[in-house]
Amino acid sequence: MWSYLGHMPARPARCYRRIKGPPYSREEYIHGAPMIQIPKFDMGTTSAAARASLPMAAKLVVEERGQIRMQALEAARQMASKYLTKYVGDANYYMRLNVVPHHVLRENRMLAMAGADRLQEGMRLAFGSPAGRAARVEPGQVIFYVEFKPEHLAHVKEALRRAASKLPLPTRTIIEPKGDGDGKTTTQR
Length: 189
Description:
Helices cover 18% and strands 26% of the residues. It is α+β, with helices and mostly antiparallel strands. The protein has one domain: Aldehyde Oxidoreductase, domain 3 (Alpha-Beta Complex). A 6-stranded antiparallel sheet has the order 1-4-7-2-8-9, covered by helices on one side. Strands 3-6-5 form a 3-stranded antiparallel sheet. Helix 2 packs antiparallel against helix 3 (153-164). The longest helix has 18 residues, at 70-87. The radius of gyration is 20 Å and the shape is elongated.
């Protein structure tokens, strides 16, 4: 049996990037909520011993409140991870995706078929059925966190720039020494 949901194209991100209403994330009450389709949240070298040799840290920080769909997070993760693996090598970086798409998106689907030339109006303020997932983010929240060696700074900045191009909200990159705790940071736009 064919699933109607499986053959419909996803709506554009602009339909979901603004936060409207309370979070919808209690899975015990949501039947048919899609699974989180992000296989890895930690990439590169994940052992604590190897990470101790990576003195620098970079963060991709979001500048506006909004929602980022799970497909956008996965596309950004793949872009950054593939770029860093190719130009820096898995052993020379650690990257973490810091946000999890807990919020379930709903969509009130309208029929779109041959012969539907009259405008279909449907019910106002309809609740909708689960159609995807998104992470809700606030200004200043870290989306991607990367640890690396100073000689790979240019590649890390390029990887985060490519990841940011997949996200619907404006972001900035922050480069700083890792964990010295003095509060001094170097901000790079």
